[in-house]
Amino acid sequence: MLNWPKGLSAIRQSIRHSSKAPVALTSLDLHRSLSELLFLQELNRYQQAFIHRVFLAYPEDDLPGELEYRLNCIRHQESHYQETIEFLERRVENAINLLFNVTSFDETRSINRLTYLAFVFAPVSFATSVWGMTEFTIAPKWVAALAMPLLILSFFIAWLSTIISRKLDLRRVKHWTDEEKRR
């Protein structure tokens, strides 16, 4: 017979300890936990169906009192296990979603770093390409003289866009919290 409390406890421990591992391993552990939960859910359904068939096989009065009592206890346990499995299933799915959201957030931060790096190289690249296309030669000090103001201008635009986006984000959060307070 399957030891339900021990199996569910092992899955709870697996969920609890999976947050300390790297993202790929954590995701793998969570998906394994989810597949184990689905397997346990199917076993639980088979056991519930078996108990239901036993009750259908015997008329109400033909089932011995002790057997009926034990089957009702098992039926009650099975419904409790089903609720626990569904709870753990939702918990694992939420953990998987959270893991993917955190990973997505980290990727977004990496893209933002790359964008800021482009703010540095784009003006310098533009200045060198403008002087590289012409037939006349210009001293390198003029390239630097054009590149530095463009670099400063791009940093100013990046700084300004950061401030504007933060203010817009704050307005969205304030609007969202005001809507929540109205509800």
Average pLDDT? 76
Distance between the termini: 50 Å
* Number of helices, where a helix is a run of at least 4 consecutive DSSP H or I residues: 4
Outline the biggest β-sheet.
none
Overall number of structural domains: 1
Strand content: under 5%
Uncertain spans, ≥5 residues at pLDDT below 50? none
Give a verbal description of the structure.
One of its GO terms (molecular function) is metal ion transmembrane transporter activity. InterPro entries: CorA_TM1_TM2, MgTranspt_CorA/ZnTranspt_ZntB. It is found in: Membrane. It holds the Pfam family CorA. The chain crosses the membrane at residues 114-131, 143-164. By secondary structure, the protein is mostly helical. It has one domain. The protein has 4 helices and no strands. Helix 2 (23-57) runs antiparallel to helix 3. The longest helix has 69 residues, at 65-133. The protein is elongated. The two termini are 50 Å apart. The model has no long low-confidence stretch (mean pLDDT 76).
Layout: helices, strands, pairs:
Elements (H helix, E strand, L loop, with lengths): L3 H14 L5 H35 L7 H69 L6 H43 L1
Helix pairs in contact: 1-2, 1-3, 2-3, 3-4
